[in-house]
Amino acid sequence: MSNDFESTWEAYTSAWKVDSSDKKRAIFAECLDVSCEYADPHVTTKNWDELLDHMLGFHESVPGGYFVTKSFMTHNNQSLVKWEMKNGENIVIGEGFSYGKYHNNGKLMSMTGFF
Predict the structure, then answer these.
(1) Where does the chain have alpha helices with state H?
(2) Which of 6, 94, 99, 110 has its CA 20 to 30 A from that of 33?
(3) pLDDT digits (tens, 9 = 90+) for 16-57
(4) How many whole angstroms separate alpha carbon 28 and alpha carbon 49?
């Protein structure tokens, strides 16, 4: 896998938009390390199954919800992302920042959201 971290990040965020577990897992295989960790002010996950459950819960509370990257900065296998959260009607309902850490193979090892 190339070290195009922005493409990896965009693949990861696309998983938030799809509503199928199988599609999410296929995206995970492209961009996430199998032992990736995710954290935000409400939850911490330690693997794909826990992240999948959290994403499915997100879709229950925000039908059609997704994230749009507003800015992306990277260095030394890390990224800082500014994003907007939109609902299924394309209305901005939140914004925040995320920090990503990447394995040498280019896949995300950890994602931490701040909002």
Answers:
(1) 5-17, 21-31, 48-61
(2) 94
(3) 999 899 999 999 999 999 999 999 999 999 999 999 999 999
(4) 10
